[in-house]
Design brief:
Layout lengths: L3 E4 L9 H14 L6 H19 L3 H15 L6 H16 L8 H9 L5 E7 L2 H11 L7 E5 L4 H10 L7 E5 L2 H10 L3 E4 L21 E3 L6 H19 L1
Parallel strand pairs: 1-2, 1-4, 2-3, 4-5, 5-6
Helix pairs in contact: 1-3, 1-4, 2-3, 3-4, 7-8
Bound molecules: magnesium ion.
């Protein structure tokens, strides 16, 4: 049985990527008289990657990457008014209400009500920005713990599971990113349920891979998670019996 149910936040419990997509589209429009949209996409992604190690994941690094891209692609002709607009776009993203994904609140509450399980939110990004989103989600009180981390790798998960006093195979992580939520958890021996989101940031994309692991499955939507957790627990229990 999974004693610890861990949820990713962005694009798993609430919508996040559409905010980035809207700002990105505005940047393309703004730079429309300087360069083609593909050039904007390419340069913005390069700036985001280069800035990850400095600012980490989140809106701050993204807004500064938009500004750098605008200055560079306009060959420094971008107006102060436009730069101001980009900075404001970043602030608007940080102030945006948290839009929960349909069914997310019900699923979190269902597991939170189970005294035999701990429910933890594991989210990556800027501390203040993530905390604001959690506050606005209305779900904060449902979690036994909230972990805001700068990177989601095997070591991060092992440390978190260790702190909650559970073995990796007693944990299941639910998230939209194969790279951040699924593969590192499977690697350290935990279970994982992937819920694809409508948009994936290019940096979170991984090549199509076949995963052959009894502790993994794919969910069409978050409402399917309770049923799939029951299935995973049943298959592990049966597997164990077969090996006796
Ligand atoms: Mg996510």
């Amino acid at each position: 049985m999974f004693k610890l149910i861990a949820f990713d936040g962005d694009d798993t419990l609430w919508h996040n990527e559409p905010l980035f997509r809207e700002a990105h589209i505005r940047l393309r429009e703004m730079l429309g008289h300087y360069v083609a949209p593909e050039k904007v996409d390419e340069r913005l992604y390069q700036a985001e990657l280069a800035n990850l190690s400095i600012y980490g994941y989140g809106v701050t690094g993204f807004a500064l990457s938009m500004i750098e891209t605008a200055i560079e692609l306009s060959e420094q002709k971008i107006t102060a008014k436009d730069i101001h607009e980009l900075a404001e776009l970043g602030k608007q993203m940080l102030r945006a209400p948290t839009r929960l994904i349909d069914g997310a609140a019900e699923v979190v509450r269902q597991f939170a009500a189970d005294p035999d399980r701990k429910v933890v939110l594991i989210t990556k990004g800027d501390l203040i920005a993530q905390q604001l989103k959690i506050d606005r989600s209305g779900l904060e009180s449902q979690f036994d713990g909230i972990e805001i981390v700068s990177e989601k790798d095997c070591l991060t998960y092992r440390n978190i599971f260790g702190r909650y006093g559970v073995q990796a195979n007693e944990c299941v992580m639910i998230g939209n990113s194969m790279k951040s939520d699924i593969l590192p958890v499977l690697d350290c021996g935990g279970g994982a349920i992937h819920i694809p989101y409508e948009i994936t940031w290019i940096h979170e994309m991984v090549d199509q891979i076949e995963i052959d692991n009894d502790l993994f499955c794919e969910a069409p939507g978050i409402a399917d998670v309770p049923r799939l957790i029951a299935d995973l627990e049943r298959s592990v229990a049966t597997g164990k019996l077969e090996h006796v």
